[in-house]
Amino acid sequence: MDNGDPTGPKQGDLSRAEPIDPTDPDRRRFMVKTISVIGAGVAATVGVPAAIFVTGPTRVSGTVDEWIRLGSVSSVEPGGEPTLMKAVVERRSGYRVEQQEVSVFVTTDDGQEFRVLSNVCSHLGCRVRWVDDEDGFFCPCHNAVFGAAGEVVRGPPPRALDQYEAMVEDGQIFFKFKEV
Q1: Which of 21, 60, 68, 177 is deepest in the core (most CB within 10 A)?
Q2: pLDDT tens for each residue of 127-137
Q3: How is the chain split into domains, by residue range?
Q4: pLDDT greater than 60 at residue 1
Q5: What is the mean pLDDT of residues 13-42?
């Protein structure tokens, strides 16, 4: 096919085309930028999900959020002294899952609704115990006293004993343990 110039190269004839100079700075700059963009895209596509997968368990800690069985409703006397009950909770820390025994006090006025209180003082983390003479929970660390509902009666604790959500199912008491 003729392009109108009898002396010039015919269309499609590459024998007279100027060769590409591989040292041309504009071409090199373009190639470096293109390869860099493609490389960054591949790295982000593969690297970000891989990093999330590998570091995911290290960002998860605490306890498993599930109902934990304490025991039978018949083991807690309505209107009586709080009952100390024990349960095993699972704690997650990174890739490790450990089982830990926790103790709580359980009370009920009517045998239907149950209150589950921590046995750990909110002041310094000492264990509290029920004392009939005080009609409440006593912390030996600083002579603090908490009422039957866990409220501060005397002493330095900044807040009441922690109370956990409780439910009854098939004659069993369950609670949700949360670290505070």
Answers
A1: 177
A2: 999 999 889 99
A3: 25-57, 61-176
A4: no
A5: 77
Cα–Cα distance, 23 to 31 (Å, whole number): 11
Taking the CB of residue 145, how many other CB atoms lie within 10 A of it?
Answer: 18
3.20.20.70, 2.102.10.10, 3.40.50.12780, 3.40.50.1820: CATH of 61-176 = 2.102.10.10
CA distance 19 to 162: 81
The sign of the CA dihedral 170, 175, 176, 177 is negative
Of 160, 81, 153, 157, the closest CA to residue 118 belongs to 160
Residue located via tokens 């409703």 = 73
Asked if residue 22 has pLDDT above 80, the reply is no
> Is 0.70 surpassed by the pTM of this model?
no
**Nearest partner of 129 among 179, 169, 82, 78, judged by Cα:** 82
